[in-house]
Specification:
Strand order of the largest sheet: 2-5-1-6-7
Radius of gyration: 20 Å
Number of strands: 7
Structural class: alpha/beta
Shape: globular
């Protein structure tokens, strides 16, 4: 299993499209991320999860049962459903009963494992090398602007449930964890612009992530089976070599799905039906050199931690871009 734990607004969708559609390396099922394993709890000595209105798997099952999931909202700005014909064609003869079992009653770790076992056995016969699941935002909640993290009883319970999930996953799958990073300020600014389209009344602090902190947290559980690729170097440099070695699968520049953030167009980005999730809100504000340098000074430690860990900053990191 490839476990995708990327940071949003860093070309996560184009990379997953690459893995599933172009490389036929991993198939993620019916969407980019199910969001089914949120709000964990223990019930009858088993790890279960509270049902949620935002549970993607339930909504997908309902639409799939009605025959309207395929190409639903295809090309709509802000969407990354991964429900195009190219995505669902390998699942034509995959029994819907597997998805039905996953969403019936309270979600549980056993139902989750049963689904991905069945999906794995099916897509392997279709030429794929693995299955995939995307856990966007399920790493931890720490961001670089937080000075201190206090662990409450609830957060401790979540940590224990995450350990149980990971131990169960590793006991039955050979797991590789893949992340994709982008210049911290430009990634955060894209996130912020998207957020403004829905929350224009209240300002939001620029959500700068401390990538190295996140990586260290993940490596505690997955050791050396963790790899972070850099968006700028993957699309504009020689990053395909490292990704290919990690996946143990050939990756070429021509395999990469279109990425509207490389080269970075800032506020001049335009909607593209092939990556409809990327352009939403990006034209609201311009990331001027003045704004960039303000946050570059404030969060210099994020860049310094990266340099200490990897030896140098990636391509185009640490300097503003003059958009034209």
């Amino acid at each position: 299993m490839i476990l995708f734990c990327g940071w949003g607004w860093a070309a996560t969708s184009p990379l997953i499209y690459t893995l599933q559609r172009n490389l036929k390396y991993a198939h993620f099922g019916y969407t980019k991320t199910f969001k089914i394993l949120s709000s964990p709890k223990w019930k009858n000595n088993e790890l279960t999860y509270k049902r949620s209105d935002s549970n993607n798997a339930v909504r997908i099952y309902e639409k799939h049962s009605q025959g309207i999931w395929e190409n639903w909202e295809k090309g709509k700005p802000g969407t990354h459903h991964m429900n195009h014909t190219i995505d669902l064609e390998p699942l034509r003869d995959f029994p819907m009963s597997h998805l039905a079992s996953l969403v019936t009653g309270d979600p549980s770790i056993s139902k989750y494992m049963d689904f991905f076992h069945a999906l794995h056995d099916h897509v392997i016969l279709k030429g794929y090398k693995s299955v995939g699941d995307s856990h966007m935002g399920r790493r931890h909640e720490n961001r670089a602007h937080h000075k201190q993290v206090r662990f409450t009883k609830g957060s401790q319970s979540k940590i224990e449930s995450n350990k149980q999930y990971i131990e169960t996953l590793k006991s039955e799958f050979d797991v590789k964890v893949l992340l994709i990073a982008r210049d911290p300020i430009r990634r955060a600014f894209s996130n912020y612009c998207n957020w403004l389209t829905k929350n224009q009344k209240q300002p939001l602090p620029l959500p700068i992530h401390d990538y190295v902190y996140d990586l260290d947290s993940i490596r505690r559980f997955f050791k050396d089976n963790v790899y972070v690729t850099v968006m700028e170097e993957l699309w504009e440099g020689d990053g395909v070599k490292g990704l290919s070695e990690f996946l143990e699968h050939p990756v070429h520049k021509s395999d990469l799905w279109e990425n509207l953030y490389a080269p970075d167009r800032g506020h001049l980005i335009e909607h593209d039906k092939d990556v409809p999730c990327q352009a939403v809100g990006q034209g609201i504000l311009e990331l001027t050199p003045e704004i960039y340098w303000h946050y570059r000074e404030k969060y210099d430690f994020v860049y310094e931690k990266w340099k200490r860990t990897f030896g140098s900053l990636p391509l185009y990191w640490g300097e503003p871009i003059e958009y034209s």
